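Milestone M4 deliverable, item 7.
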Amino acid sequence: MPLDMWWFIGAAGACLAAAAALLLLPGAPAVVGMPGPQSVALLRGGRRAAVVVALVALHQRGVVTTGRHGTVRTDGWTQAAVRDRLQLAVHTSLRRPVGVRVVVTVPRVQKALDALRDECAAAGLLRANARWRAARALLCAVPLTIVTGLLVTPMTASNTPLQPAISTVPLAVAAALWAIPRRTRAARRLLESLRERHPLEQRPPRGGPAGSRVLTSVALYGDSALTLYVPHFAREGGLLGHGSRDTGFAVFNTAPGSGSTGTDHPGCGTSST
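Output delivered:
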């Protein structure tokens, strides 16, 4: 390999080595203990799944119901009735009927989800936020380094056929490292264990299942559990799938004859948490 090629191949290799160390070296040891349903949902399906579990928990308490056009809204209740941070953030974002995909973007909900994520990282179930972001930044630097090197390295008869071929190696390694999930091996084992201990029922028992069983099933199985235990709330509230009926903000008609409509941002005009 010509010496003038080493500078960008070597730089890309250094980025790859640092990213691999951040992603593959052990982080925080897994903490013995059973995470709550919202944490389990976050591990299985990400932020939206955690918010859906929070909405089901609030619905079971009778404080959240369906709105119009695939949205959810509050149905009474005072803030002091719930102490869970994510549930409180979700409820205070429902001053008007709002779709699930919008609830996830509300700043107070994002902060609560970040706190939930940090708890999972501290328990060794997710890769730490700082390490994850640093690794991603290093992986993004690999193709930039390769492209820059190919553009500025003088082309000669000896290195022209080698440059494209050798450059594909760090790019392939970067793609493989990018595919590593944020969820750790301990989290995967935990989810497998929970599914073995809590298989999804074929039909809800007479009298209805316990609330904790519903939340655990929704956290583990998503849509299948939603349609089994809370079908009306799931369908009418836009909780299923990616929210095919979730229109975001509900449209409110003004007084008859005014000919105008408006939308409300969740949480507008309310005090911050």
